[in-house]
Amino acid sequence: APTDLTVVANGSLTGTEPLAGGLTRWKFSMAEPIPVHTMVLGAARMAVTKLPNAACQVRCVPVSIYTYPQDSAWAAAGPFRRAAEMIDFFGHLIAPYPYQELRHVQTSTIFGGMENSTVIFYDERGYTSKRLGEGTVAHETAHQWFGDAATQGDWHHLWLSEGFATYGGALWAGHVAGDSGLRQSMRSSREAVLRSPASARPIIDPEATDLLGLLNSNNYPKGAWVLHSLRGMIGDSAFFRGVRRYYREYQHGNALSADLARIMSEEAGTDLEWYFTQALTQPGFPVIRVKTALEDGHLTIELTQVQKPEFKLYRMPNLEIEVGGRTIRVPMVGKSARTVTHWEGSTPPAVTVDPKVWWLLDVATP
């Protein structure tokens, strides 16, 4: 490349060599196998800012940001200020960072972020508009584990990459802002799915032939919801144990959804095939209508699924409602579920469905 340009590529820079004609040869080495779609190189006039090394308890990982010179100060103080901490967070939660280093690069990519292994590309317009946020950085960083190191074996199982990365961003929000941060992130993901025409199709859609078109809400926020609802059902211990095992077994390899379902079933100690069939092959989402009746201090609450028939029924064994400050579990295993509780007021109270935000659902207006 011309000597005045900085070159980036997967792996680690092992050296440069001056050539005739004002050129420099850049040499990179990548020890681990990576997916073809995450192989990349680029050259531009760049400013390089080194951030603190990450994960030094295991093996120090160099972290840096490559920007156009005029954007370096904003990037370092803004969206990338905790980029090294993200590697620590995901490394502790899942497994040690799978590669030798990580660079975050401002580029002319058509994507808001592209998770190229060890060298993440971000759209330059996110810098000039100041719209690039920490959530995007967390999403792309999580991809280094899921999508890059553990890769879907078929593009129709893209949610194993994008759903995991989207949920990784939500977990990071929970890490920095507590449970409220996680729940707000999942509410935003839920609204995105409810509004999207893609929800009319299932996540795993063998009829889809436009592979680029699979970069939609089904594989991003809805994929994240597959993981979040599963976590709510089986609990944190079994869920994260299963995620770590899934990653460990398929690191630097390929997996399909059935592989994750098998591992999660084994770690939870129960057959979860029904859940993955429901979450991945049914279109849409449940829509719940709430009906209440109050008589002699007894409050009857009936929940009914009223979504489109083509969406089919959803099973939600740990569904909860909130009534007058109390949380009541109302398992839904069919079209309707009913519970009776004591209520001293003269009128039925408001009922909040899924107050702790564990299910992808909508609530029908009266």
Q: What does this 3D model show about the protein?
A:
- The structure is a single chain.
- The mean pLDDT is 97.
- It contains ten helices and 18 strands.
- It has a five-stranded mixed beta sheet. Strands 16-13-12-18 form a four-stranded mixed beta sheet, with no helix packed on it.
- The termini are far apart.
- With 366 residues, it is α/β, with parallel strands linked by helices.
- Strand 2 (12-19) and strand 3 (23-29) form a beta hairpin.
- Helix 5 (159-177) packs antiparallel against helix 6 (179-195) and helix 5 (159-177) packs across helix 7 (221-234).
- Helix content is 32%, strand content 26%.
Could you tell me the radius of gyration in angstroms?
23 Å
Order of neighbouring strands in the sheet with most strands: 5-6-7-9-8
Count of β-strands: 18
- Helix- and strand-based class? alpha/beta
Q: Characterize the main sheet.
A: 5 strands, mixed
Proportion of beta-strand residues? 25-35%
Instruction: Note the overall shape.
Output: elongated
Question: Would you tell me the overall average pLDDT?
Answer: 97
- Which residues sit in consecutive blocks of at least 5 with pLDDT less than 50? none
Distance between the termini: 65 Å
Q: How many individual helices? A: 10
SSE arrangement, N to C: EEEEEEHHEEEHHEHHHHEHHEEEEEEE
Helix content: 25-40%
